[in-house]
Specification:
CATH class of the largest domain: Alpha Beta
Number of strands: 16
Number of helices: 7
Radius of gyration: 20 Å
CATH architecture of the largest domain: Alpha-Beta Barrel
Strand content: 25-35%
Distance between the termini: 38 Å
Order of helices and strands: EEHEEEHHEEHEHEEEEHEEEEH
Number of domains: 2
Helix content: 25-40%
Shape: globular
Structural class: alpha+beta
Length: 301
């Protein structure tokens, strides 16, 4: 829970082509993006004043908008320039960036063909997503009652705001039970992801991860897969049933916010599993920390 509300902060937000004072970056209540979730966004991490994989994030933002039937009013290059300007204006060295594009208030109804497309980018300081102890013990997760929808029922290839309402519901339910996050199945009953991060299982020295056919193929996910392959670790993308967690020696999550975070326990109706963060978890978070420019402590032999 942030100590300072996000609508009452100092600094600047890049809004429809210019930097505006933070508290002035507002929109009308009769906004299509608010009422019908016609908005797309990104989550980006700043390390040492530079966004990791900025171009890839901006390409995904543009593609997500096209899936929802509109064009982001800026090119990938313009998005990059605006982001760098914003980070400098706010003096962010270690933080988070949130670009968002949405349909405006020109029309109020399901159809919004004439609505103006707005674009904003905000950034703020952000420490670790999970507690500092997460890498030692792993986080605690709870099975979600909500499932990732089939691709023919929702725009699952887009990072669209509406797809995250079940993530909020799932995370709230998990936190109410003393857990850090929720683990979601897909509509077929196969492993999918956390509420904002992809999942990996270590089985017999190999990395197994669900095929991203109804959820995002995360940028951090792709980074970790490349890092694992560079170490000669075999990576297998496939359909994974929940009971296969019983074969896993280690489990971890990957995401822009989560980075690489081990899972220590999963509880709930689908099954109860415990894991201990081990050698492969450690290699992956150390390699990822190096990739983003963090200092990495030497691992004892």
């Amino acid at each position: 829970m942030p100590s300072i509300p996000f609508d009452d902060r100092d600094g600047f937000i890049w809004y429809d082509g210019r930097l505006v004072p933070w508290r002035e970056a507002q929109l009308h209540v009769l906004n299509h993006g608010l009422h019908y979730a016609s908005s797309v966004f990104e989550g980006e991490r700043v390390y040492g004043g530079t966004v990791f994989r900025l171009e890839e994030h901006n390409e995904r933002l543009v593609n997500s908008a096209r899936i929802l039937g509109f064009e982001v009013p800026a090119s990938v290059e313009e998005l990059g320039a605006a982001t760098r300007e914003l980070i400098k204006a706010n003096g962010i060295l270690e933080g988070y960036v949130r670009p968002i594009a949405w349909r405006g208030a020109e029309q109020m109804g399901v159809s919004a063909q004439a609505s103006r497309i707005h674009l904003a980018i905000a950034c703020w300081e952000w420490p670790a997503y999970f507690s500092p102890q997460a890498r030692q013990k792993g986080i605690r997760m709870m099975w979600s009652q909500w499932a990732r929808p089939a691709p023919n029922t929702a725009p699952t290839a887009a990072k669209a705001s509406g797809l995250y309402v079940i993530c909020t519901l799932a995370k709230h339910a998990a936190e109410a039970e003393g857990c850090d996050d929720a683990l979601m199945l897909d509509w077929r009953g196969q492993l999918a992801e956390g509420t904002g991060a992809n999942i990996f299982l270590v089985i017999d020295g190999e990395l197994h991860t669900p095929t991203p056919d109804c959820f995002l193929n995360g940028i951090t996910r792709k980074t970790v897969i490349a890092l694992a392959k560079a170490r000669g670790i075999e990576v297998i993308e496939r359909a994974i049933l929940p009971q296969e967690l019983g074969r896993a020696e280690e489990v971890f999550l990957t995401g822009t916010a989560a980075e690489v975070t081990p899972v220590g326990e999963i509880i709930g109706a689908v099954g109860h599993y415990r894991f201990t963060p081990g050698a492969i978890c450690r290699l992956m978070w150390e390699d990822y920390d190096r990739a983003v420019g963090k200092k990495v402590k030497a691992t004892a032999a």
